Automatic annotation (TrEMBL):
Pfam families attached to this UniProt entry: Complex1_51K, NADH_4Fe-4S, SLBB
UniProtKB keywords: 4Fe-4S, Iron, Iron-sulfur, Metal-binding
Protein name per Swiss-Prot or TrEMBL: [FeFe] trimeric bifurcating hydrogernase, NuoF-like subunit
Listed GO MF terms: 4 iron, 4 sulfur cluster binding; FMN binding; metal ion binding; NADH dehydrogenase (ubiquinone) activity
Metal-binding is among the record's keywords: yes
């Protein structure tokens, strides 16, 4: 897989040891304000403001607090955290140390995707080296009384465990099922203690922001979506790989960069995202337009879009934890509907009912998995009706 780097933010130069020492010499509130002023929003998909999250966890009562790195990276089509965990592990660990300092935590956990077990050795070696340099452990960087250390917890291959409360359940040794919210992890997280859960990219981006300043970060992106973002680009394009682009890039410009100008559709945000057709390629990738955790799947003119919808729905049916009815029943029923469409036996009245079921799932499912499971189905039907309904369906 190729890596197409720019040197904007995430891939810009940073001297980890010096940047960490410099950060720990500042007041906690000052660091949190820097992150807040940068406008950084979580890079795992949901886009919650990182400074606010750290502030809430810092203000929460509790002798024991945790910093958890969400390295589950289960969204179909995303592989940018893999690059960060492999080549930028020091920056991730330093980012977690800074988060621990900001919220008053001594313990950090990396929740590593089961399929990334092969990375354990490299990550552990990086931590050993950082302990030797006094960047992890006791009195970090000479800061008397500040201690922070990290251990790695391996996931077992469930997509839903990327959802932060299911992740916490899994960390505690339970079935990976999402919790009711509130209470939120910032007050009641791992072992009932205040917990910050952030994506790999979020920690690294925050580390750069603290080193180079909020104003520097805001120079990239848009007013509502500041900075840059990593994109995992795959599918029918000449140059798939991991890219860093400013937020607010248009779909058309992104396709030009990756050699995918010929695309008939792009799935933005992975299976849980939205399928965008050519007439929408002028849209921007940003929280205020099309938000994404970074998965971009390009579909060339020859692709059968009903098969694409089927593939995604099979994934959701397999990964639904089954805890709530809209998702458990909805994923199965939508998949059956897609199969009827395939056989040209889906009456229009039933198709309308399926869309209505999808919309019900979006508002009534308990977690993001069920809420987003119908997105691809609905957007593909909207955009490719002519292709999918080209042949008459039964009565
Ligand atoms: C089904 C599901 C899977 C998710 N998978 C991931 C994941 O693999 N990595 C991730 O960082 N966030 C994932 N999330 C989002 C997390 O719940 C959470 O919002 C995120 O870890 C918060 O970190 P951030 O604010 O830095 O983005 C997932 C959410 C859902 C609903
Ligand atoms: S929406 Fe799906 S994955 Fe989420 S709690 Fe309900 S059944 Fe489980």
């Amino acid at each position: 897989m190729s890596r197409h780097k720019t040197d904007l933010v995430i891939f810009s130069e940073i001297h980890v040891d010096q940047a960490l020492k410099k950060a720990l010499a500042r007041e906690r509130a000052d660091l949190i304000n820097e992150v807040r002023d940068s406008g950084l929003k979580g890079r795992g998909g949901a886009g919650f403001p990182t400074g606010t999250k750290w502030n809430l966890a810092g203000a929460a009562q509790g002798d024991r607090k945790f910093v958890v790195c969400n390295a589950d990276e289960g969204e179909p089509g995303t592989f940018k955290d893999r690059v960060l965990l492999t080549d930028y592990a020091e920056q991730l660990i330093a980012g977690m140390v800074v988060a621990g300092y900001c919220i008053g935590a001594r313990e950090g956990i990396i929740y590593l995707r089961g399929e990334y077990e092969y990375m354990m050795r490299g990550l552990k070696e990086t931590m050993v080296a950082m302990r030797k340099r006094n960047l992890l452990g006791k009195d970090i960087a000479g800061k008397k009384g500040f201690e922070f250390d990290i251990h790695i917890h391996l996931g077992a291959g469930a997509y839903v465990c990327g959802e932060e409360t299911a992740l916490i359940e899994s960390l505690e040794g339970h079935r990976g099922e999402p919790r009711n919210r509130p209470p939120f992890p910032v007050t009641t997280g791992y072992l009932g203690c205040p917990t910050v859960v952030n994506n790999v990219e979020t920690f690294i981006t925050a580390f750069h922001i603290i080193d180079k300043g909020a104003a520097w970060f805001r120079k990239f992106g848009t007013d509502k979506s500041t900075g840059t973002k990593l994109f995992s680009v795959s599918g029918d394009c000449a140059r798939p790989g991991v890219y860093e682009f400013p937020m607010g890039i248009t779909v058309a410009n992104l396709l030009k960069e990756v050699g995918g100008e010929n695309a008939k559709a792009v799935q933005i945000g992975g299976a849980s995202g939205r399928c965008v057709a050519r007439h929408e390629f002028g849209s921007t990738i940003a929280y205020e337009d099309i938000p994404t955790g970074g998965s971009i799947i390009v579909f060339g003119p020859h692709r059968n879009m009903l098969q694409v919808a089927k593939n995604f729905m099979e994934f959701f049916l397999e990964e639904s934890c089954g805890q709530c009815t809209p998702c458990r029943y909805g994923t199965e029923t939508l998949l059956e509907g897609i199969k009827l469409l395939e056989q040209k036996k889906c009456p229009m009245k039933y198709l309308r009912e399926l869309i209505s079921l999808g919309e019900t799932m979006q508002v009534s499912s308990k977690c993001g998995l069920g809420q987003s499971a119908p997105n691809a189905f609905i957007s593909i039907l909207q955009n490719f009706k002519h292709e999918i309904l080209a042949h008459p369906q039964g009565e």
